[in-house]
Write a structure and sequence with these properties.
GO terms for molecular function: D-mannose binding; metal ion binding. The chain is an alpha+beta fold and 371 residues long. It contains six helices and 21 strands. The chain has two domains: 236 residues, Jelly Rolls (Sandwich), CATH 2.60.120; 55 residues, no CATH class. Bound molecules: 2-acetamido-2-deoxy-beta-D-glucopyranose and calcium ion. The site of 2-acetamido-2-deoxy-beta-D-glucopyranose has 6 residues, from loops.
Length: 371
Amino acid sequence: MIFQIFPISLIFLIFPFIISAQSQWNTRDFMKREHSLIKPYYGSGIDIPFWQFTGTTIVTPNYIRLTDDSQSRSGAIWNTVPVNSRNWDIQVHFKVHGKGKDLYGDGFVIWYAKDHLIDGPVFGSKDYFLGLAVILDTYSNHNGPHNHQHPYISAMINNGSLSYDHDRDGTHTQLAGCEAKFRNYDHDTHISVRYEKDVLTVSTDVENKAAWKECFQVKGVKLPTGYYIGASATTGDLSDSHDIMSVRFFELDLDNDEDAAEDRSKIIPSASYFEAPREHIDDPKPGMSEQKIKILSVDNIRPLPKVAPRKTNEKFRLDKSRMYTSIPEKERIGNNEKTKNYATHQGTHDQQQVILCRTSKASSPRSSGKR
Ligand SMILES: *[C@@H]1O[C@H](CO)[C@@H](O)[C@H](O)[C@H]1NC(C)=O
Ligand SMILES: [Ca+2]
């Protein structure tokens, strides 16, 4: 009997080595159905199992369209099951396409966030979120000189205190980013968001090579378990269709993961590395652009051009581009009331009307003068 058992135990000894050799190719990573979205989307009923959608999202047999190629759309799709895996890889097959040749927007976000199904100004979802946003930004809002082209993929980690600044394409809050042309292809386009041992790696497969190309990698990213996967998109004056064909969630089964037992459910999202902003070189704190709402009376701010030179030690400024040009279309979604009031108040002398304006501590008068 002993001799019969022995070969079997040998197999058990050898087996782990076979597996660990294979794990480089992720054969042990397995797709979790409850976090994945694959065709056919519908189960037995009219619901998509484990997923909910909001806004302009429509589901067809072959794709989930967050927005179509028309103005002022906003749609999202969210997984309803919180992710309890510590290490994962989310692979999204997507398609962004539209009739615009040079002008199109705005893009979409792949989320790993605490709050789900909450609409807002960050490509259709909540600002001041907790978690990770991987932003595929097709439209360059940034007025100043740019260091990169769009479409641009970047990542933002938020503990709920930061606002995504559309006007600067999130420059102040991004961890890292890369250019990636992913629009209007006939071939399939994919993105992988991999979170493994606190390292975030974003890769794309958009050149029809059936291989991942690294976009960026950032170490020291802390994300808790228990958040939700989602995707959301918006259009403004410019538009695109933003389609999701599939979401595949792989739980990574790591060898020698000594931290695997650690309870990660209570930690606050954080990143030890922020990319230095491309502008605002006089900003002492990269990635810390702070925004606040100030309430001013209209009397105090008229006529508008006098506001900036007024002798005051208050560290706010009025964003003139906001006053004289149309408010960026991104802000309109979910902010319709506010922008409407904004426009009205500009044209009236009624006293004590309240105007909401955005101020930025990070912007000194000098830098605003350069704009
Ligand atoms: C949240 O993030 C901001 C900006 O990165 C940081 O200043 C703040 O200390 C963080 N708060 C918590 C509770 O981690
Ligand atoms: Ca943008």
